[in-house]
What we know:
There is one protein chain. The chain is mostly helical. The protein has one domain: Magnesium chelatase subunit I, C-Terminal domain (Helicase, Ruva Protein, domain 3), CATH 1.10.8. Helices cover about 55% and strands about 5% of the residues. A two-stranded antiparallel ribbon has the order 1-2. α1 packs across α2 and α2 packs antiparallel against α4 (about 65-75).
Amino acid sequence: RETDAMIQNGASPRATLALNLAARGNALMHGRAYATPQDVKEVVHDVLRHRILLTYEAEAENVTSDKIIDKILSVVPVP
Length: 79
């Protein structure tokens, strides 16, 4: 099933700000002053999990926000 058909409400623009801050914080904890794609991957589930509202049908099929995030990560190219 298509991922977009399983999402009732997606993450807002504020979620991208939170993801940016979390990735930068993760980078600082690893001794870097800049964030990498790996930093984003390490924090994306914690930042977006509660910001994605699934459809009833998706929940009935045991789809989770984490599965949706994993699917998105698998199709978005890493710079």
